[in-house]
Amino acid sequence: MAPLSARIGPSILNADLSQLHEESEKLLANGADYLHLDVMDGTFVPNLTFGHPVVKCLRNKIKDAFFETHMMVQHPQQWIEPMADAGVQQYTFHIEPVLDSVADVCRKVRESGMKVGLALKPGTAVEAVQQYIDSADMVLVMTVEPGFGGQKFMADMMPKVQWLREHYPALDIEVDGGVGPATIEQCSKAGANMIVAGTAIIRADDQAAVIRDLRSAVQSAINHGGQC
Ligand SMILES: O=C(CO)[C@@H](O)[C@H](O)COP(=O)(O)O
Ligand SMILES: [Co+2]
Question: Binding of substrate: at which residues (predicted)?
């Protein structure tokens, strides 16, 4: 099994979406390890973004970056094939709307050739993913209520990250929401190795420096056993 690595995936939610391609290229040139694409359907969350046609256009322009879609949608089953066809590598979906069919959704995502991410809203107990860990490649612990960028980081989500790291030392664990230079230490010490940051990177004067600093905080926690 590959050792854990620190990866930084900027969220483009608060970028200038009329310049999606240019903003994405800039993030990648500044050192982003992957792109975190927030898909919202206006039902699961009270906001609306974009879907597979936009992701496909972006893929046509950017051939080699790793795309993760964060599916904040009521019917994650519905978008598996379209997102795979659009060139997405990881399909991270919320378990809350599909609690009775999580295993089935995981299986379909894997059959489509994408990696599986299981996302948890702040109010969802972390133990809810336990029975699906073998079917998943990553767990996303939301550190804000999903739906909007620029919210305040919820430090009280860190015990969930710690619990996952203690139980699954090799699991990829992602945090998303209000993460940036001021909150990265909590995330990295708790055990997160995949870091989504929107506002903190998009609004930075020096994106490359922020990305580099976030990654080095996480990598150093991994290297020095700082993770629980
Ligand atoms: O999924 C979401 C919000 O629902 C996130 O990906 C945010 O868009 C990240 O933005 P910041 O909180 O880092 O500004
Ligand atoms: Co997100």
Answer: 11, 70, 147-150, 178, 198-199
